[in-house]
Write a structure and sequence with these properties.
- Helices cover about 25% and strands about 40% of the residues.
- With about 290 residues, it is an alpha+beta fold.
- The two termini are about 40 Å apart.
């Protein structure tokens, strides 16, 4: 009998909005429209090619309790050869056919009632940014936006405590559309014309003193960072309270849950088990 190990899997929560380009108002994202758009490709097991990535949406998934859609999407890697290594044996090379791929899956739950998305992703699976691109099927009138739900406890600490340091790293500067003014965005606007790809910033108060950064200045930087959060690889602030320092993540501190599974050392999560636990966990958080 295969030995089972307990493993905790992280699930992050996001809001999904369908923004009307003309009015800038949320029209409400209905995932059923998205399913209908890809229905033929889903049912025929077709590979979807979108913005330099390939994926496959699993069929035979659907709605539960008349409100939860649980989906599974595989990011496909067009590897030509796989090396199979067995102990005390020569390495075997497995060649894939042109229509064969290596797949890494992402599981997600979407609630029609609250418009909240619950996502579990692996290191090499589809990213939330890529899922957002996939959701954007009607690009003439609407833009689908997937945004993190901040952890209120962390947000309260950042808003109410003195901040002594702010550090951030911005990547893919050329992809950023600077449409408003701010201390960070002004700098990025200047760097875009100089072929700069990434930018690191650190603001800190004077050493050896319990002095904090100007609150108004920090808020302006955080506002700028929030507007380009998809290009932020790291963003942290150092706070203190009662003489104790604490470093907080600005954007990775979103609402999340961990679900425990018992799986084989080389096994994977069974979809039916994951689906049931995801629905139960979601309902416990958003009653």
């Amino acid at each position: 009998m295969e030995q089972l190990v307990k493993k905790e899997i992280k699930y992050n929560y996001y809001t999904v909005k369908k923004i009307n380009i003309d009015t800038n108002k949320d029209a409400g994202f209905d995932i059923r429209e998205w399913i209908l758009f890809y229905d033929e490709k889903i049912n025929s097991n077709e590979v979807i090619e979108e913005n330099e990535f390939m994926c496959k949406i699993e069929k035979n998934l659907g709605f539960y309790k008349y409100r939860f859609y649980v989906g599974q999407i595989y990011r496909l890697k067009p590897e030509q050869k796989i090396k199979k290594i067995k102990e005390k044996k020569d390495t075997d090379v497995i060649e894939l056919q042109d229509d064969e791929y290596i797949g890494e899956d992402m599981m997600f739950l979407y609630d029609l009632k609250s418009k909240i998305l619950m996502v579990q992703q692996n290191r090499f699976s589809l990213s939330v940014n890529r899922l957002e691109l996939l959701f954007n099927v009607d690009r003439s009138n609407y833009v689908i936006s997937i945004d993190e739900i901040p952890d209120k406890k962390v947000t309260d600490k950042i808003n109410n405590r003195p901040i002594t340091k702010l550090k951030c790293r911005v990547n893919n500067i050329s992809d950023i559309d600077v449409d408003k003014k701010g201390p960070l965005l002004n700098t990025i606007h200047q760097l875009k014309g100089d072929s700069v790809n990434s930018y690191y910033l650190e603001l800190s108060s004077r050493r050896g003193k319990e002095e904090c950064l100007n609150k108004e200045l920090v808020d302006r930087y955080i506002e700028d960072l929030a507007s380009i959060s998809k290009n932020i690889t790291s963003a942290r602030v150092a706070t203190y309270e009662n003489g104790k320092k604490e470093v907080l993540e600005l954007f990775n501190a979103n609402e999340h849950d961990f679900i425990e599974y018992s799986i084989g050392v080389r096994g994977s999560i069974i979809f039916e088990e994951a689906k049931d636990k995801m629905i139960e966990t979601f309902e416990n958080r958003y009653k």
